């Protein structure tokens, strides 16, 4: 039997967060909960292999957050569950590349912007149910993932390591995290922290306009909701092949409500679609544009 626990510890030490596993060992045992403890994980038996991997690596990831750091998870669920969620998204496909772990992404897209969707930084003690789930798990995980996408793996890792090195065992508060990431990355990320972690809003991109000129296509993408999310435009040709154009969240930094993507199609385009595994979208109907095919006379 494959040892998911050992593989998780290796992935944590060498890939993400790429920080030496801070304890001599961890014990994972089959019990009746889905719960992390210092150096111990108590997981109930699950039939499905993929779900077992996701649960196991998630709970082991908690070794770093909250335990090694000393996070107050009762008040700031996003400061530990958010990382454990990002951790399972990244580590699960390392253990088994056939699994896509997008835990919580669709549920967020489904209720984003409704009255049960409160800002991430709302104290966890003041939330319950879906509200608490979204704010502790997928929403902060997406925020961390988007910053990593924007900074690049190397700079993100440098900033995260600075946060870990400065604050492990010292019970960091929310602003300690934000300030550490700004300081070590050398970037003022406050625009994003504000809009993703503190403000209202919902993720909703739309294809607003498509223009073709001199063999180039210019697609205007609108941010209908005000949450800054990455732009992934899938261009599908009439022969069924496709390519994806990607822009990180920095395209929304100025507070603009539209951005443009220009590309040169190499073949006849059939369809354009805004779609990404880690890009929730509250209204998917305006994400697709079908290209009218020219009639041959
Ligand atoms: Zn957890």
Q: Could you write a compact summary of the structure shown?
A:
By secondary structure, this protein is of the alpha+beta class. It has helices at residues 4-14, 49-61, 63-68, 81-95, 105-111, 129-136, 138-151, 153-167, 174-185, 190-198; strands spanning 27-30, 34-37, 40-43, 205-213, 216-223, 231-237, 242-247, 258-263, 269-274, 288-290. It folds into two domains: 4-198, Neutral Protease, domain 2, CATH 1.10.390; 205-290, Immunoglobulin-like.
Task: Give descriptors for this structure.
297 residues; Immunoglobulin-like; 2 domains; three-stranded mixed sheet; binds zinc ion
Describe what you observe in this structure.
The chain is an alpha+beta fold. It has 2 domains: 4-198, Neutral Protease, domain 2; 205-290, Immunoglobulin-like (Sandwich), CATH 2.60.40. It is built from 10 helices and 10 strands. It has a 4-stranded antiparallel sheet, with no helix packed on it. Helix 1 (4-14) packs across helix 4, helix 6 (129-136) packs parallel to helix 7 (138-151) and helix 8 (153-167) packs across helix 9. The radius of gyration is 21 Å and the shape is globular. The model has no long low-confidence stretch (mean pLDDT 96). Zinc ion is lined by residues 58, 62, 81, 84.
């Amino acid at each position: 039997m494959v040892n998911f626990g050992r593989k998780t510890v290796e992935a944590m030490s060498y890939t993400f967060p790429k920080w030496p596993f801070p304890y001599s060992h961890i014990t994972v045992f089959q019990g009746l909960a889905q719960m992390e403890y210092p150096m111990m994980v108590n997981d109930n038996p699950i039939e499905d292999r993929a779900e077992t991997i996701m649960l196991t690596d998630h709970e082991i990831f908690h070794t770093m957050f909250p335990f090694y750091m000393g996070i107050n998870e009762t008040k700031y669920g996003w400061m530990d569950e958010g990382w454990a969620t990002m951790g399972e998204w990244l580590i699960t496909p390392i253990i088994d590349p056939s699994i896509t772990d997008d835990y919580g992404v669709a549920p967020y897209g489904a209720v984003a912007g409704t009255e049960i969707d409160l800002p991430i930084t709302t104290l966890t003690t003041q939330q319950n149910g879906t509200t608490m789930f979204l704010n502790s798990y997928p929403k902060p995980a997406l925020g961390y993932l988007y910053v990593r996408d924007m900074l690049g793996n190397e700079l993100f890792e440098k900033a995260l390591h600075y946060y870990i090195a400065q604050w492990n065992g010292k019970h960091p508060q929310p602003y300690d995290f934000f300030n550490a990431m700004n300081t070590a990355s050398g970037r003022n990320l406050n625009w994003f922290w504000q809009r993703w972690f503190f403000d209202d809003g919902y993720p909703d991109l739309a294809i607003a306009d498509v223009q073709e000129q001199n063999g180039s296509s210019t697609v205007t993408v609108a941010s209908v909701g005000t949450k800054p999310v990455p732009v992934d435009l899938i261009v599908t040709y009439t022969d069924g092949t496709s390519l994806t154009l990607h822009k990180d969240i920095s395209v929304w930094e100025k507070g603009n409500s539209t951005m443009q993507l220009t590309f040169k199609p190499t073949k006849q385009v059939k369809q354009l679609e805004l779609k990404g595994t880690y890009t929730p979208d509250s209204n998917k109907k305006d994400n697709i544009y079908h290209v009218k095919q020219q009639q041959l006379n």
